[in-house]
Amino acid sequence: MTASTPIHRAPETPAARQALALAGVFQAAHLVDELARTGQVDQRAWETLIRATLDTNPESFEAIYGGHPNNLRQGLEVLEGVVGRKQVNPVVLRYGFSLLMLMNQLRGNDAMMDDLGTRLTRIQGQAEHFGETHENVIASLGEAYQETLSTLKTRIVVQGDPSLLQSRMMPERVRAILLAGIRFALLWHQQGGRRWKLVFQRGALKKALDQLG
What we know:
Helix content: 55-70%
Structural class: mainly alpha
Number of strands: 0
Shape: globular
Distance between the termini: 24 Å
Largest sheet: none
């Protein structure tokens, strides 16, 4: 079996695909919070998001997140809390919903969408040369976010340890993960995800999450 072969086929139901895409958004939100507070993140969760951002032309839906829902486990756990009306870190929630708002603003800006596409194509070349999680690649992803999405009306202000947030490569890592959150937010929208559905179709999302296990 090749590395690109999905381990688990994603469910065909729209709700399940929306749940997986939304898990990517909340995983990004969770990782930004972890980075800002502790400087550390789960490596598998981090690599899943970076690879998804770089893969702008995936061979399948599953390929985006590496073929297994467990690659989005941290995001799925946050989403389970949201749909189950359980206690969820309010900072993570704020980041997640801000990413969805940013995505909507990006969708209405064709010039910025084109600019991001051009930048990502260039960064893919860097990734092939240095490796997907090399700091040069992370720096370029962070710069792409800073020069495009951070200029939009919705600004995501990251809270955390000021000394950590100012440490070497930390701003770039945070911005790279925010860009990954936008990638999954766009995927969620492509799969039919809408803000109102989070309120009115909570049951369908919960059922989908239960099936993903």
